[in-house]
């Protein structure tokens, strides 16, 4: 089967590459000429483990192509996936201009039955707008060509996106016709032995599932961050509490780790967008509003601890930031706690030295010379008054306390992900602060 995927961002590129990997003929389309040119030369715009080798392999096998024009390929494809961005506009709702522009191009160019599947995370009700945009374009042409729209949300975790796509927990397919459902389900058959992980729904439910899933996960994190903060006040240890509650199979062990706040391209945006959708429908999402407020507060928590430790004065202090990306295995800094921390430390008169295994270029792009860039975690720690661990990369997990003792100005560690053993840090004479222990 031949398919096109519009939008070579994170979702589009991973999906396209994985569909090619299992044998489909895929054209990834993007209006950004430089991006397409780079991709044709094997230059991948994002960091995702294994993606570069898989792109290369499938391009060489002749199954993965790149183009700047959907119109050029639409005649040969049965399905067009739309995986373009939906950036939040000023009031927090998703901006649909790219999604609707793909729908328009689709309507202007199809010549036979084709399916337009939305993969981008879009508010409930968007498929109806997409359908209308396609129909309007067809009407303008005076053509009556059959088509279907469908919703097929993605659940890829950055850093594990290939694995998530190749062996999904579930595939949600929201359609309004049997024909579309059959075609789309064929595309996913290579990724599962049986049909059991395929979930067929109507379109609004498929659109809602994505927001509900991400909001539920964000809720777990904010809830645990709240519990962690309270643990500190009452002398409890959130690690023990986490284990104690996670063994209840109704709660489950995963996604209960407190930290310095969630970030990334999905949780913050989706939580805001769902609050907004509810508002537009005359409903208040009380829980999600609290989830969002707790997360905003949590992103400052390491800074608050730092300020308390240095009696409210950071002038002349140097802070080493270990980790910039919003989580390990990605260079993505969208909504990352590191950005808030760097701002706050700088505003308070402190200087920041940073190191991240892959996000250094991304940080340079965003912050220029606001911080000092270091070649490794130890260089960042030289003459530092404190280390702030913000992203739990594996290489930060077993630091040499002996080396740190020699090079740091003061022996202070703020561990935003609870990866260090408090006793070990104390044995080396470090003041150690973490989250909820
Ligand atoms: C998320 C969803 O998991 C994915 O299904 C969806 O499609 C996109 O959004 P992603 O943003 O890549 O994926 O990151 P994820 O691994 O889910 O982590 C999100 C944030 O939560 C990170 O900032 C992480 O540090 C934080 N987190 C996660 C915690 O603070 N505690 C946890 O227990 C788990």
Automatic annotation (TrEMBL):
EC code(s) of this entry: 1.1.1.22
Active site positions: 266 (nucleophile)
Record carries keyword NAD: yes
Residue ranges of domain UDP-glucose/GDP-mannose dehydrogenase C-terminal in the record: 320-422
MF terms (GO), sorted A to Z: NAD binding; UDP-glucose 6-dehydrogenase activity
Pathway: Nucleotide-sugar biosynthesis; UDP-alpha-D-glucuronate biosynthesis; UDP-alpha-D-glucuronate from UDP-alpha-D-glucose: step 1/1
Catalyzed reaction equations: UDP-alpha-D-glucose + 2 NAD(+) + H2O = UDP-alpha-D-glucuronate + 2 NADH + 3 H(+)
Any single GO BP term: UDP-glucuronate biosynthetic process
Family, per entry: Belongs to the UDP-glucose/GDP-mannose dehydrogenase family.
Identification of the protein by name: UDP-glucose 6-dehydrogenase
Lineage: Bacteria, Pseudomonadati, Bacteroidota, Bacteroidia, Bacteroidales
């Amino acid at each position: 089967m031949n398919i096109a995927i519009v939008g070579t961002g994170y979702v589009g590129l991973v999906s396209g590459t994985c569909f090619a990997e299992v044998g489909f003929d895929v054209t990834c389309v993007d209006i950004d000429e430089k991006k397409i040119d780079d991709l044709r030369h094997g230059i991948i715009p994002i960091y995702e483990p294994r993606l570069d080798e898989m792109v290369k392999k499938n391009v060489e096998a002749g199954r993965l192509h790149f183009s700047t024009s959907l119109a050029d390929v639409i005649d040969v494809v049965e399905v067009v996936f739309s995986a373009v961005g939906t950036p939040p506009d000023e009031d927090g709702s998703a901006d649909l201009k790219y999604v609707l522009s793909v729908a328009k191009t689709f309507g202007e160019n199809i010549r036979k039955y084709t399916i337009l599947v939305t993969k981008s995370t879009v508010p409930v009700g968007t498929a109806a707008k997409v359908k209308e945009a396609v129909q309007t374009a067809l009407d303008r042409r005076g053509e009556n060509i059959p088509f279907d729209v469908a919703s097929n949300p993605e659940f890829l975790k950055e850093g594990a996106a290939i694995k998530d796509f190749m062996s999904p927990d579930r595939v949600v397919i929201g359609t309004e016709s049997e024909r579309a459902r059959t075609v789309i389900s064929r595309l996913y058959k290579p990724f599962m032995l049986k049909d059991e992980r395929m979930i067929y729904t109507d379109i609004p439910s498929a659109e809602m599932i994505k927001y509900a899933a991400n909001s539920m996960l964000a809720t777990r994190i904010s809830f645990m961050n709240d519990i962690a903060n309270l643990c500190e006040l009452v002398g409890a240890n959130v690690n023990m509490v986490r284990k104690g509650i996670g063994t209840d199979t109704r709660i489950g062990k995963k996604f209960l780790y407190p930290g310095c706040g969630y970030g990334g391209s999905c949780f913050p945006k989706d939580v805001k967008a769902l609050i907004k959708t509810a508002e537009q429908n005359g409903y208040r999402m009380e829980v999600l509003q609290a989830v969002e407020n707790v997360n905003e507060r949590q992103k400052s928590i390491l800074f608050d601890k730092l300020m308390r430790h240095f009696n409210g004065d950071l002038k002349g202090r140097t802070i080493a930031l270990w980790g910039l990306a919003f989580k390990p295995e990605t260079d993505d800094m969208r909504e990352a706690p590191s950005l808030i921390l760097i701002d706050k430390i700088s505003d308070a008169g402190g200087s920041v030295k940073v190191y991240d295994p892959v996000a250094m270029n991304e940080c340079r792009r965003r912050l220029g010379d606001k911080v000092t860039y270091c070649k490794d975690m130890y260089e960042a720690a030289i003459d530092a008054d404190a280390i702030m661990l913000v992203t739990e990369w594996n290489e930060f997990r077993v630091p040499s306390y002996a080396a740190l003792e020699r090079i740091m100005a003061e022996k202070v560690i703020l561990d935003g992900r609870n990866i260090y053993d408090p006793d070990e840090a104390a044995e080396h004479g470090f003041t150690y602060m973490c989250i909820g222990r």
